[in-house]
């Protein structure tokens, strides 16, 4: 009853006391039950609320006497606060009365701590966190436990503060509350630092400086972390070393409250074993897994040291722009190289054989890929690498702090086990073994790298064990004191990383002995004082070999940082250097440039069998004294794009270099050879030239060439990729039309049209035409005279050049100017021996017609024609084969049923019979083509073997075969231009060509396969008083086809002005190349001009009748002759 009086009198302290007594009475009515628990809790809640209000009034009235006026904690608690604290403690002891009310009790305890002293507040907050934990509010539990730790630390209760911080650490570890977690660790680190527990404080500070979200921590706090870390390492080395040993477990992120796992213990025990058996050894402080600087393990990449950066070898102008290229194209080129080399080793350059080898190579690669996928990690193995060949490790390194960090002596940490004696050389752990001081500054240099290598810090070598030695008896030694020296050397670098930035770091390591190499991590010095080590953690590939592994997403072992070091290997680099030291600014279609392939061996072993494979027949290696049957440009195989590079090296006498070259099949280490090549660009727009170099390890004096041995193992051969992107501008277009001559048998008229479409600049776009060359074995060419004479009404630029003092040896045509020249194609006489002839017709000049049979001086003109001819035939056959394979695969997929074994055997036997029949029928002969000059893709068997009667697919004889049935010619137009239009500028040389123009079709013809000519008098006088005039005429019908017969009908149409007497209609069949002469007689009754051509031929083709009328005029002028 008195509570209302206290309430009206605003005696809050007494009012709260009455409610407290009433609550206790409810509790005593049923101390073991929950009958009055609700009333009890309401009374206690009201009492605490009024105690808090009373405490606020007492605090305001007392003022500075009890402290806390500035917002801090009071040094002396008011009476009401003490009563509230007592009531809270009573409340927490009556468990039966607040059953299932842990959340409300925790809130009351937290609110009651607001006006308490630090010690009282710490007790209340700790009690409230316990109730939060029981109610399932774990984050509130950790938060209030963290505040309780701060209150204990304010009350100078260090042990209790450490206990609270540690209890809260488990909740925030591994969650998404990074800021709170870092705050908790910083508080715990400061607490341990003040308590003198330096080992655990070192762990926490090391984790703090490498945490994410460093920008949320003030710069002052970050500097304090670094300062405390350095002070611990300076003044408490023993404790710091204990803390560093606990950090070898990368997953130990709980401030040292979790015990180190077996891996951590084994690592530390290995260091202790070295110290135990090596008396002079000592261990320095090195902090692992600190993440400062932070290394992104997912960005790790290991590659062979790029030899292109091995020092400054002078300015080399490259041809075009270097690009990485497409991986699929590189794989196709590699398959083609292996296939052509295997076919060449068997003395067989047949196209079908090479295509079969390509299919086998692709099938083997697909099978190997499937086997690796099925086997998973069990099929993986370390990469095989060469001794004394530097490896480059690239990774991203960042600074998570807001202050700059200075890193020095950044180096790789590795372990190498020798394959000869099993000794281990490692730089793991900061274990120092004293050695010779003079040897520590020794440096190593290698041809393939421009860096200076040194022995890594803390490198040591295991002892040599005999048969009677026990494990661990002999001491480890320093490589400086060992006869074998270090097993590997590394390079070092210094780096300053700005706040919040990331940079790419490239470090190198070079193995000096054979064995198993594993790169385990990277170490550096922080602020040139503190050693820091980061072990690499690479995630292995997903295992797909079993259903359980796929379901559990199990991963295998990663071999990215592991290598198998074997014997020495060559390492070639290729630079494309322009001849004369100046490259062309622009590249035109058909332009021929002189370049030099500068090949350098930067490895440690000699290289041999250097071959070059390109994706287009752009390159030609000039040869002298080449026979017609020999390959062009040292080509291997029928593709025309695989060539063996002739290696020549300069000789020196008495220490003086001269210009004499000696042929050699081997490039020794440190040697550089130069191979001159001619490059002819084709196509339009941006073209990509892929160059794939293949070379092998030379085995002493015995060189295993691909011609006399099988393909070497993959560990003894290497590839070098180089892709160049070249913009090609238009220059000249060349077209030709062949028509039979109706004046003389077997002669033809060749009309060549040349148009200037050059567009690489705005002005000075002239092109100078040099000459027209015809390569053939059965025809020679003769330029028709007076084609640029003064009779033209409107002389062209080319004609004015000839008439008014321009250069007399070249014909210049301006932009978009067109010139058409006509030539007479004359066959050799039958009694003449078939010999390859290159007819040359200068467009302007007295010596416009010349021909020669010498191949020695004119081979470079036809080299690119031979290469393109061979490449086109190979590409056509390969494309047809791929289309056929795709069609079969589509049919198989549509059927959705596997083929029977008998069906597969029948198809295989039929294919083999077709191949054998084709090879026997085409042995040493070319395949007939159509009248457009392109050869059939079915005729792939140019020759079998390399007998004396055979010839290479890229040879002159294959371009102009000795078979008389292959009546084709090759047209070549050479031209020149100036790079900028001035005569004193560099001259650009080029050529365009048309291949395999059919002079006489072999089996098919787009037009009429027959030609007709007439032999008659063109003018005659006659006295018509004696009767009509009779004139004899002979009509010759000739079969243009070489091999196919033609059946036709000969018919004369009646004319009103004259009459033809003779065989007016008959049916006949002419074999290939045959002709028939039909004698006729023309009767005319008056004078005048008559066109005697009234002939119609009907050709019978596949039960069809195709009539042909000829637009020719056989003109006869008849003059009257009156007798007197």
Automatic annotation (TrEMBL):
Region Disordered: start-end pairs: 457-483, 882-947
Compositional bias ranges of the Polar residues kind: 925-940
GO cellular component: TRAPPIII protein complex
Domain of life: Eukaryota
Stretches with biased composition (Basic and acidic residues): 882-891, 904-917
Entry protein name: Uncharacterized protein
Species for this entry: Ditylum brightwellii
